[in-house]
Amino acid sequence: MHDVVTVDLWLDVALRRHTEGLAELTSVAVPVRYQLDGVDIDADVCAVRSALDWLHEAYRVAKTYDVTTRPERYALLQRLAESRVMPSEMAVMVGVDVSIAERFAGADDEARIARSILHRLKTI
Asked: Looking at the structure, do residues 53 and 102 belong to the same domain, yes or no?
C-alpha cells in the first residue's frame, strides 16, 4: 500500500500533481474528477475553465492589437486636435475615452474655453 499525498496552493495544480503521482505508482492513468456533495461537477468546472481560457486569450489578442495600433491611433488624434476637433467628437470618431482625446486637444481650462468658443462660432 502506498499513500500519495499532494499539497499545493491551487486545487487544479494539486489534482494534476496527485494524478501524476498515482499514475507513477499504478502505471495507469487514474481519472480524477471534481465532485461536490457526491455530485459530479467535472463538466461544469471544465466548461468554466474553458470559457476563462478563451477570455484570457481574447484579452491577450486585444491587448496586443491595442498596443500595435496605438501609434496610428495617436497620430490620428493628433491630426484631429490640430484641426481643432472637440475632444468629445475625437473620442467618438476614434473610439477612445474622452480623457485620452483631451490629452491631445489640451485639457487645461484655457484650451477648453478656446474649444468652446470655436465650437460656438462653428454653429452660428
From this structure: yes
What grid cell was written down for 101? 482625446
Find all residues with CB under 8 Å of 6, minimum gap 6, and list them.
Answer: 14, 15, 17, 18, 21
AA letter at 86: M
Return phi, psi of residue 71, to 5°.
Answer: -60, -45
- What's the angle, vertex CA 76, arms to CA 72 and CA 81, rounded to 5? 145
The parent domain of residue 26 ranges over: 1-32
Alpha helices, H only, the chain: 11-26, 42-82, 87-94, 98-105, 109-123
Give residue-wise pLDDT tens across range 23-71.
888 888 888 777 888 888 878 888 888 899 999 999 999 999 999 999 9
